[in-house]
Amino acid sequence: MRRRSALLVPCCAGLLALGPAATSSASPRLRPRIVHGSATPIGDAPFQVALYDPQLVEPGEPGNLLGAQFCGGVIRDATHVVTAAHCITFGGFEAAAPEEVEVLAGSANLEAPEAGSVRDPVLATSFDPEWNPFTGAHDVGVLTLQNPLWSGATPEIDGTATIAPLAFAASQPPAGSAATVSGWGFDKPLLPGQEPSASEEAEGHPAVLQSAPLTIVSQAECAFDYEDEELLLSEFVCANGPSSPVADSCFGDSGGPLFSGAPGSPADRLLGLVDFGEGCAQKEFPGVYQSLADLPNRQFAGSDPPQAPRSVSPPAIAGTLEVGRPVDCEPGGWQGSGLEFRYAFYREESGALGFFSVEALTEASGVPSYTLQSADAGQRLFCVVEARNAGGIGTGISDDVSIPVPASSAAVPTVPVAPAPISPAPKPPTLGLLSRHCGRGSCTVVVRAGDGAGQRLVDKLEAKLSFVRRVRCRKHGRRASCVRRFTRRVGARALAPGRFSIVASGLRPGSYTLAIVAIDSAGLRQTHATKVALVLRPSRRHR
Questions:
Q1: Do the two domains 310-409 and 430-536 of this chain adopt the same fold?
Q2: What is the C-alpha separation between 400 and 398, in angstroms, rounded?
Q3: Pairwise CA distance, residues 294 & 232, whole Å
Q4: Where are the domains of the chain?
Q5: Selection from 98, 75, 82, 211 nearest residue 156 by Cα
Q6: pLDDT digit string (tens) for 66-109?
């Protein structure tokens, strides 16, 4: 899956990773079809559902969900759908709001849902608290639906039912076993690292559910192909098309089912969920699936988890702002039940040219208090709260507070001899890097923006990404290879007053420079742009 959005603080990496290791990424989604699959009636896969964002449904075509679909899922029972964690978190560490996800069940056609199909809002978005976007571990999520998909007896897979659950496999089948994948994923082969062309993304795609026969690949062979020993772990299962042209899942299929047996068979069992791969339909890179035969994955997928923690009002530092006095980090408001909190305090120090350095003052722990030190005088502090429950993790960041300099240590003012007082010119805004992270085709940078005295808020940021590429050209009438510098604008999103995230997506592995300019409410611009070096390395790419 090409991820849409993500929160920016990796909770499971220790609250706030400040500096080169921090956050998750985002990128636009692709429309759907399995590579080298065939159209499949919903009666052959009545457990298959589409996840879509109701906010992206075109007002003029309220019945057409093709452009709003972003992942697949599997019906577990009348009120639960199993999918990938990266579908619920959009590849990051924080659950999507329930209102951002709805489920379409009982239809193979997204463009014109069939009679009897159900569009069900989501009551809770949950994911395994051990989910790790960097390793792909525990990539399992659960959606709790607002309305039951059926009442009375549980429907069975019989070729006629259009909505029915799929039972989990008790054990993983051996290499060489037959399996089937279904979904609405991108339908053209892609080489490792290849991005679809603009025309491929823009052209219309058939909206009918696809499925394709696959063969289970041994974990040893899969680990060898990817040069990744982690694929030997029981939580992964690999599969590929048994013949040429190779069938495979692709972007847009994430969270959908890999199941045993042929479509429409009552003996079908859920083997895994579409996870990641290098390219699509590449014989040397089989598709990788999150195994539901793995006990921890199966236990979470079969549970009834609460809503994952979501910060609905930010934490706040409370207490007397005086050196030597303790202050508390109040957790703020949260969505989700059964929450456990961890806290950490950070100090921002302004330096030359208005840059900020950020220093961790406490380790992440269950202690919400910190005693102000002499080094904090004249600086700004903020706190970070990590909330965890059985349905996932979430993070909240407080606004910063200024710590006054004690009167006893303040310098005695001198009276300058001057002809007349002159009003100081307003200072341009300043920028400070809070975190940056690159991975799987995108880079995310979080910055703090404001003026040195904290008197004005920054209204917006301008960001430009520059990079060097070797391209084909002609020199003296002959074909040659030339180095060219490219630039492109990227958007910035406000997270909280004075904090912004900048996400550059659709990137190839390589080195990039991000130039950022802050503009405050008075229209003043920072005179020297903050430049951030980014390095994107090849890594796992979710589908």
A1: yes
A2: 6
A3: 12
A4: 31-301, 310-409, 430-536
A5: 75
A6: 888 889 999 999 999 999 999 998 767 789 999 999 999 999 99
In terms of CATH, what superfamily is 430-536? Immunoglobulins (2.60.40.10)
Q: Which CATH number fits domain 31-301: 2.40.10.120, 2.60.40.2470, 3.90.1150.10, 1.10.10.10?
A: 2.40.10.120
Q: Checking DSSP bridges between strand 530-536 and strand 510-520, what pairing results, if any?
A: antiparallel
Q: Whose CA is closest to 181, among 294, 30, 108, 287? A: 287
Q: Which residues contact 115 (CB under 8 A, 6 or more apart)?
A: none
Contacts of 439 (CB under 8 A, 6+ apart): 24, 25, 133, 134, 536, 537, 539
* Interatomic CA distance for residues 517 and 521, integer angstroms: 14
What is the chain's percent helix, strand, coil content, to nearest 5? 10, 40, 50
Tell me the pTM: 0.72
* 223: its two tokens: 């680990």
User: Any idea which fold 310-409 has?
Assistant: Immunoglobulin-like (2.60.40)
Q: Report the distance separating Cα 426 and Cα 340, nearest Å.
A: 44
pLDDT tens-digit map of 521-535: 777 776 445 666 665
The residue type found at 451 is: D
